[in-house]
Amino acid sequence: MPSATLPTSPLFTIQSLSPELRKETLIGAEVLLNTSNGPIDPSSFKPEDISVLRQALYDNSVLVFRKQQGIDPLALEKLASIWDPDMINVHSAGKDQVRDPRSILSRNNGARLPVAPNVQVIGNGEFRDYDGIEYMNLRHVDSAEFHAQPLTGEELAEGQTRFYRWHQDAPLYENLPGKVTLIHAVVVPKLPDQKIKFQDGKEMNLQAGSTAFISGAKAFQLLTPEEQEFALNTTVQYAPRAYEWIRNAKATSDGLGIAKVGEEAREEDLPAWSWDKVQAFPMAWHNPGRPQQPHLQILGCCVHSLRTTDPKTGEVTVIDDLAETRRICYEMQRKVVKPEHVYAHHWEEGDLVIFHNYGVWHSITGQLGSTQRLMWQVTMRSGKEPEAARPVPVKVQ
Ligand SMILES: [Fe+2]
């Protein structure tokens, strides 16, 4: 079945991914270049090009540009600004690669490109003399260290992998998340396809190291009317220094949350923090290009408590029991985790993928051993918090 061709501009034609790839995900369009085949240069975009790209991302959540080998690394942050007039010119994870051993974000041994410090290099395997970086030993996550019940030897032998952590790219402390994330594939592992088994027994084949996406809009649609109302009225409070807090906590097998309470770091072992820098976000996020379409956006591993406001009276109810908070979030999120709702991007070298970080969840996958993988990742700090799909009412006095 041919894929639908969507709006065009002088530079771009937006083409929906094929129905076989899109399934029921609501995700995915390819951006075809009308005039050239080389890497894109945002400084040449006309206002019509920008508005077509902007809306295409709000409509499709993930945009794919093929054959972008040689793209200027500085072009990635310029592209990010298309979706964020309040963008601050710093990677949302900070000016430098996170090196604090207390943070799980330091475990992948990533680096920043010397010529473009907002480009984070992530992946797997050893690299020498890469773009001015003398040596990198990049680490992809492995089920053995990540899941409470890791893949067994038998499951690994039959090519199974898992979702690791469904998340948005969000520091959850001090720095606001980027509206979009961009990933450029430089080196893609050449391994046989792997597969993920879902809780209902269904299986999904995917490329080793594929990045998986779920639409927060689809997740919201699958909630009951009562759950939708709850999501629209609730704010999710994240834990102080959430990534340091869960650094020794193991994930559920589906990557949605933390398997049990009690493995969190003690407060005194966290880096210094104060509540005014700890972030809380709406449970249902506003999509500026589709204002009627709420997106359920929860970082299940990092939740701390929930605050629900009655829209009629403004009365606030707080749930601060950690097990109950996690259970509620998990029940709301798990419905969507089915093969028909997951878009797994099959990376080709040269791909540039831009995703709506305020509209989708993503997870890495793959058992890569020592096989090389190298990606550039950019997600720029925003100056503005995620907006609620429904503004929180003010208490009636
Ligand atoms: Fe991520």
From TrEMBL:
<comment type="similarity">
    <text>Belongs to the TfdA dioxygenase family.</text>
</comment>
<dbReference type="InterPro" id="IPR042098">
    <property type="entry name" value="TauD-like_sf"/>
</dbReference>
<dbReference type="GO" id="GO:0046872">
    <property type="term" value="F:metal ion binding"/>
</dbReference>
<dbReference type="Pfam" id="PF02668">
    <property type="entry name" value="TauD"/>
</dbReference>
<dbReference type="InterPro" id="IPR051178">
    <property type="entry name" value="TfdA_dioxygenase"/>
</dbReference>
<keyword id="KW-0479">Metal-binding</keyword>
<keyword id="KW-0223">Dioxygenase</keyword>
<dbReference type="GO" id="GO:0051213">
    <property type="term" value="F:dioxygenase activity"/>
</dbReference>
<keyword id="KW-0408">Iron</keyword>
<protein>
    <submittedName>
        <fullName>Related to Putative dioxygenase C576.01c</fullName>
    </submittedName>
</protein>
<keyword id="KW-0560">Oxidoreductase</keyword>
<feature type="domain" description="TauD/TfdA-like">
    <location>
        <begin position="41"/>
        <end position="379"/>
    </location>
</feature>
<dbReference type="InterPro" id="IPR003819">
    <property type="entry name" value="TauD/TfdA-like"/>
</dbReference>
